[in-house]
Amino acid sequence: MKKKVTLRDLSEKLGLSTAAVSKALRGHQGVSEATRKLVMETAASMKYGGLSEPVKKEQRGTDAFIIVDRRELTEPHTMSTYFFIDNAMKAHGLEVAIHGVPMDGDDRAIFRLIESANPSALFLFGRFSQKFAEELKATGKITIVIDYDYPALNVDVVLPNDYQGAYTAVQHLVHAGHHRIGFIGDKRLSPGFHDRYNGFIDALEYWGLEANSKHIYDMKFKDAFGAINFNPIIRQIDYDDLPTAFFCANDPIAFVLNNSLNARGFKTPDDVSIVGFDNLDSSQWQYPPLTSVNYPREHIARKAVDLMLWRLEDRDSPCNKILVQPALVVRQSVATPRKMSN
Q1: What region holds the HTH lacI-type domain (predicted)?
Q2: Residue 23 and residue 54: Cα distance in Å, rounded?
């Protein structure tokens, strides 16, 4: 059987980038008429995908959907990720739309929309049930999962290395002189939170520090309706027995902790140092500005789009799990413990 001609084959034949070839094939602006004509003629001669004239943008619809939890549709983390995916798609002359559905996926409208709009690919972003993820993949669309992992589902995944990020956070606190380090999170909330907890515990062990159960707050942040609520932090922290530092499983947890400590007369970082995770834009506006593990949104978005384009050309290869390494953003919420600074 003759090998199917791919976008990469056209790119190598013409000496152009795959992005330029993709734009030319789709009639996208930013490609000269001469280049477009050359690409079209070469694609036709190589019998690329039974090529016909490119469909105009207003006729071809959206190339991919980003599917997110409806309640998190306007969250900064979601909007930032959408922005970077949109940019990465546009660089290839492609369009993406974002759609919110219930976290449990109990909404048939999204499947009707997928059938009618016929996107080439789906980006599933955030926490959904295994059943819903399986149903999405069963549509036959290229499915790329971002920021979550479904161990029982054979699907392409791009996510941050949560374990390493937590390890890096603890390393920073240890280097600052902290030996009594606490944790606040909910390892049942998602595989990412579980990995952050494991990274925290293993980092303590590596540096020979005690994982004191009195300072480890593995809380339950999801209520009976599936909504996330961080207020238990305020009620459950033992303010009479605090560690010198906390690693928080995400930035909103760190924000609540910082405000709660300040309300009780504790100062960050003089009394307690804090490190968060995600590096939300609002981290820099906290008082003091929060040290946080950066969620590499732009890099993850580009990797997800690259993976989608590769999968369009190679549907039979094994699935991938791409871990993107996060880095620490150091601000003013960490200091040497007082007893060490004397």
Answers
A1: 5-48
A2: 10
**In whole angstroms, what is the distance from residue 336 CA to residue 328 CA?**
17
Report which listed range, 28-32, 47-51, 104-108, 213-217, is most confident.
213-217
Give alpha helix (H) positions in the chain. 7-14, 18-25, 33-45, 57-60, 76-90, 109-117, 130-137, 162-175, 191-206, 232-236, 251-263, 297-313, 338-341
CATH superfamily of 61-160+297-324: Response regulator (3.40.50.2300)
Strands 181-185 and 216-218: parallel
pLDDT value of residue 224: 53
Which residue has tokens 């374990």? 163
Homologous superfamily assigned to 162-295+328-341: Response regulator (3.40.50.2300)
- The b-or-e profile of 35-74 (16+ CB within 10 A means b, else e) is bbeebbebbeeeebeebeebeebeeeebbbbbbbbeebee
Smallest CA-to-CA distance from 275 within 193, 181, 199, 201 is with 181
Q: Residue 13 burial by CB count (10 A; 0-12/13-18/19+): exposed, middle or buried?
A: middle
Per-domain boundaries in the chain: 7-57, 61-160+297-324, 162-295+328-341
Query: Residue 29 in contact with residue 86, Cβ under 8 Å?
Result: no
Over the stretch 142-188, which tens digit does the pLDDT of each residue have? 999 999 888 889 999 999 999 999 999 999 999 999 999 999 999 88
d(CA 50, CA 168): 50
Q: Is residue 203 pLDDT above 70, yes or no?
A: yes
* Tokens 């499915």 -> residue: 143
